[in-house]
Amino acid sequence: MSGTLQRIAPQLIALAALVALVSVFYPAFLSVQMNDGRLVGPVIDVLKRGAPVALLAIGMTLVIATRGIDLSVGAIMAICGAAAAWALASGWGTGAALALALAAGAGAGLWNGLLIAGFGIQPFVATLILMTMGRGVAQLITEGRILTFTDPGFSWLGSGTALGLPVPVWLWLLAGLFVAALMRRTALGLLIEAVGINRRASALAGVNATVLLVAVYVASGLCAALAGIVETADIRGADANNAGLWLELDAILAVVIGGNSLLGGRFSIAASILGALIIQTITTGILLAGFPSEYNLVIKAGLVLVILILQSPRISAEWRLMRDSRRVQPKPAPAKATPTRPAPEDRT
Amino acid sequence: MTRTLMTTVAALALCGTAASAQTVGFSQIGSESGWRAAETTLTRQQAEERGYQLQFSDAQQRQENQIAAIRSFVAQGVDAILLAPVVATGWDSVLQEAQEAEIPVVLLDRRVDSAEDLYLTAVGSDLVHEGEVAGQWLVDQVAGEDCRIVELQGTTGSSPAIDRKAGFEAAIADHENLEIVRSQTGDFTRAQGKEVMESFLQAENGGADICALYAHNDDMAVGAIQAIKEAGLAPGEDILVVSIDAVPDIFQAMAAGEANATVELTPDMAGPAFDALEAYWADGTEPEKFIQTESRLYTQADDPQGEYDRRKDLGY
């Protein structure tokens, strides 16, 4: 547990600093009220609006841990949203529509996985195919218009409330906890990291890398399906042109802000989700602060840059040095008091 | 009602004149939005009603496809060409070819930067005027009472966002009781419209301090209406909602009393274009170089349910 805390400390600090910064421009940022049995406030909005990217980041973390990348998640969101809306519009029930959307996401992930693990196509190229093609598929399903539906059960997933919190928050919380537990309570996480560090070596050591790779892309597809369901349910309509547009980039950014290496290997799902919340805090903060919209992207890019620089290997090494030297200085006499060992990094 | 009557009368009148079947080539940009799909549907309908043969070409957002289509129209010797240009530049030579073949070209919806004598006329909407109509409606609606307005802008830097903002601001400029207190981009989408509206509500005392919402398109307004409802307020009553485009879904919202007004960006650009062409064919009348389509205001009093039924099958 303390290992996890230490791992996600940089993200927690970044988030706290960001909240402080936003509070300067919008003092009521941290205020939360109870309203008709549900919590309302800017923080709740961040948790809710961050849901699609947080969900995508869960799957993306696994993919990136295998040294891959999934550029198609935004398009998969559009496909799954369109499939669900189509199912609802043609009179299927809520459950059937959900099942169809999840199946579409898993199918898209399977397609990616087979291209990558089966045919050995580079992940960047393989998922780029679905990224460009997928939106076309979604537009075919919706016939190019916004397909609307009125299904209270389905829209509850996007804008409903459970136990005081918006349903999308529960979705990413539960998905995150489930995947993290699956990875760390079993050897699965270790195997994925092994594949990411050296696929050949892990295969020689008896890890079935092919199946693992396919499974990881299917997981990413399922996460994208959930994100697509949330977005579609939220606006009660499938907007094939815009659903999930460019969100794959936000998801990758969330993973990177989470301190995960794009070269694969060690990963932390909690840190990636924090990365997603950091991105959403910036977005919501800009909206609340009331800057002219021309500044949105510049402010966002600037803040992300600062966070990434503070987390960069060189700067964090400096920090560790400062911290360790301070820890040693007060009590120089007893040598055994604080053994200076390198801080345990990257442990989840 | 009068509109239906007028079109019927016009259609009847035309049956007499268009005896010889004219062939018209139409180079459309693509089908990137519901509005454009509706424009294509209405152009086909208009051509059918008037007894023209329509040669349709979908350029899939590429200028080279449009140039190729126009060249093939010229080679076929069509009687007129409709062009919805994907970009403003690079049309000189192909327009010249059409002119040398004595085929009139009418631009739809967007303009080009070629010399004016290379085309017969351009049919389009005045985006600034649309914003003015929306602003004027709000000025009349609040009738002198104080009103704090929030604005959902289109995609930052796009010409509809710039012009619709300018028009609205011009309309409320002389009325000190009206004030835009928050303005942010919603990127013309429902999801963004909803998210940004949520933050507006949050920042303006749970929405209690907002009197009206002005959205640069209907889709953002539809998203914002949901945000207002989820905040426990009544859109259309607690917060007035005015937007632009007149897509079918906003009429549904108006029928339910959740939106108040919309300004139409008519997808019927072909009607005025064909009118101008008929006059030109008949006796060589040169129309004005820009034919502005009507930016009609629709409110809850204008039979929103009927308007929805009329529009829902146009391909929006």
UniProtKB/TrEMBL annotation, chain A:
Keywords, ordered alphabetically: Cell membrane, Membrane, Transmembrane, Transmembrane helix
GO MF annotation terms: transmembrane transporter activity
Residue ranges, annotated region (Disordered): 326-348
Membrane listed as a keyword: yes
Pfam families, per database record: BPD_transp_2 (PF02653)
Transmembrane segments: 12-34, 46-64, 71-89, 95-117, 124-142, 162-182, 203-230, 245-263, 270-291, 297-317
One Gene Ontology CC term in the entry: plasma membrane
Subcellular location: Cell membrane
Membrane topology label: Multi-pass membrane protein
Listed InterPro entries: ABC_transp_permease
Highest rank taxon of the organism: Bacteria
Database matches in PANTHER family: ABC TRANSPORTER PERMEASE PROTEIN YPHD-RELATED-RELATED (PTHR32196), GALACTOFURANOSE TRANSPORTER PERMEASE PROTEIN YTFT (PTHR32196:SF19)
Protein name: ABC transporter permease
Species the sequence originates in: Paracoccus gahaiensis
Automatic annotation (TrEMBL), chain B:
Domain of life: Bacteria
Keywords on record: Signal
Compartments, as annotated in UniProt: Cell envelope
Main location: other
Residue intervals passing through the bilayer: none
InterPro entries: Peripla_BP_I, SBP_2_dom, YtfQ_transport
Keyword Signal among UniProt keywords: yes
Biased composition (Basic and acidic residues): 307-316
Family: Belongs to the bacterial solute-binding protein 2 family.
Name under which the protein is recorded: ABC transporter substrate-binding protein
Lineage per the UniProt record: Bacteria, Pseudomonadati, Pseudomonadota, Alphaproteobacteria, Rhodobacterales
